[in-house]
Amino acid sequence: MVGNVNGAGVAATTELAGRAAVQQAHSADRPASGRKLYNVQALRALAAWAVVGHHLVDALHNYIAKDRGLPNPSIGSFGVEIFFVISGYVMMLTASRRRLAPGKFFVERLVRISPPYWLLTIAAFGAIYSGLNMFGHKQATFDRLFASLLYMPYFNGAQLERPVVFPGWTLNYEMMFYALFALCLFIRSERWRMAAMIGAITLAVLAQFFSTSPLADYLGRDIIVGFAFGILLWPLSNRLVISRAVAAIAMSAGFALLIVCDATWLRDATHAELVVSFGALLIVAGALFLEKSGHALRSGWVIFQGDASYALYLIHPFALQAVGKASLLAGINQSVPGLILTLVMMVVAAALAAAAMHILFERPVHRMARKLL
């Protein structure tokens, strides 16, 4: 997302995570030693909540406090770029721990991200089909449903349409990356495997400059360079040793770059996603090197937020819209205190919904699936 993510009520234009995952591998990944990557979990939590914050702002401007002249920052949407860098890194980490059969790897990724997404997609489709106006969809079509469930882009003529559950746009890119990664697992050499993946991503991005096809623009969107950055970060994190101060500076520079991208002309620049992705690389790299130097955020609450970040990323639009529409119906949003109460309740609802989905559905279904595999 250059930073523009679809709003909780109505879609924004250019994107849209979180994999997000979304990162869509939001599990507690561990390196070969078995040690949890605490700082990666913290970044997952931060990225997911950043996207929630972006959609809160979007909801304010689209329907809860429309035309009230409120600030409209987009920096929260940059959480998706952080997710993509993490995804590239984590997939390299995963492949280093054990030999992965390409087919088994892809099935594991599919089973990891699909159950909650499919559940929410079908639920949203049913609600829209019954006549409810959700996420800006006024009608439900089965071709859009099938495209969403199959992680495929859906075009209305030359216009790219969002999935039924709009954060799913990031999962489409995640699945493309997983498919590429699975194909490259046939290459035994890690060095050549990395070269093949980075080369494929580079060619896809360059293709948009030589084609007028909407599909080429979609497949080569600048945001996919985040995966390549994550891949490159893997050998660097293994071979380099940098001080805590340098790691902290890198991380701070990354956040500063995201702020600059949101607060200046770069926000609307054609290839702003490239700059944002580089900022995300600095943030993830700084976090990894900080942990490598012995400085990890081990808070149990933060770790849980990281574990539940995928659930949060997927379910928060439902929570935000439910609370937002209730506020509209009750007229609570008309006053400043009521508006503040609405925002607080939206955050609480998103947090509770994500925790419930993670504990009651995502985690047990994943455990069951792993036993079957």
Key features of this structure:
globular; 13 helices; 373 residues; two-stranded antiparallel sheet
Description of the molecule:
It is a single chain. This protein has 373 residues and is mainly α. 66% of the residues lie in helices and 2% in strands. The protein has one domain (38-318). It has helices spanning 38-64, 79-97, 102-129, 142-149, 168-184, 190-207, 214-219, 225-239, 244-263, 272-292, 300-307, 309-330, 336-372, and strands at 154-156, 159-161. The chain has a two-stranded antiparallel ribbon. Helix 3 (102-129) runs antiparallel to helix 5 (168-184) and helix 3 (102-129) crosses helix 13 (336-372). The longest helix is centred in the C-terminal third of the chain and has 37 residues, at 336-372. The model is unreliable at 1-34 (pLDDT under 50).
